[in-house]
């Protein structure tokens, strides 16, 4: 049985060794970027390729103004190894966005709906510190809920698909930007809808409508159940 986790760790050590002391930040970033996700998917690539991916996405991450998504594409020729040993070309999609719910759950179905095979996904949440112009003040760190003092949370989505043309990339970027803006709107409105639902429950309890007691109790129970993360308010 192939130990893909062991292969991942070996690859990431090789990646880190490829960067000099001057550029060791990118080697450390590669470890953060690919520490999670399916190790089997990462095993398609060699250390040189992974170093290229990490360098490209770090450059994308290096400057971004909050409040808007940043999307970048790169195409690599004959870089991904298939199960039969042959090589195929891929396009990487790098998306940097303010961290919020529903991001990866929206992006992945959209890509599949458009007919793209997803070869690899890396999706760390980072803590970053930027200046007023959006430039990184220092290396990002993996976000940990146990840490008290952290920077701004940003979601990094690094996705591999089969290679697409520059024209297809432009069209896809337009669709992804629209989708991410829709997600932002949903997340912004979601607390308001939850608040309205809670007000409805309170009204039903304090000023019940003229219906049977058991029907009212069922209605209140159902609405309360919806608010316990059993329904997504859009």
Quick summary of this structure?
By secondary structure, the chain is of the alpha+beta class. It contains seven helices and six strands.
Write out key terms for the chains shown.
single chain, 234 residues, alpha+beta, 6-stranded antiparallel sheet, 7 helices, elongated
Care to describe what's here?
Helix content is 47%, strand content 20%. The chain has seven helices and six strands; from the N terminus they run H-H-H-H-E-E-H-E-E-E-E-H-H. The N and C termini lie far apart (44 Å). It is an alpha+beta fold.
> H/E order of the elements?
HHHHEEHEEEEHH
- Our estimate of the beta-strand percent is 15-25%
Share of helix among residues?
40-55%
Number of strands: 6
SSE order and pairing:
Blueprint: H1 4-17, H2 24-34, H3 39-42, H4 47-61, E1 70-81, E2 87-98, H5 103-113, E3 118-122, E4 125-128, E5 141-142, E6 152-162, H6 166-206, H7 213-226
Antiparallel strand pairs: 1-2, 2-6, 3-6, 4-5, 4-6
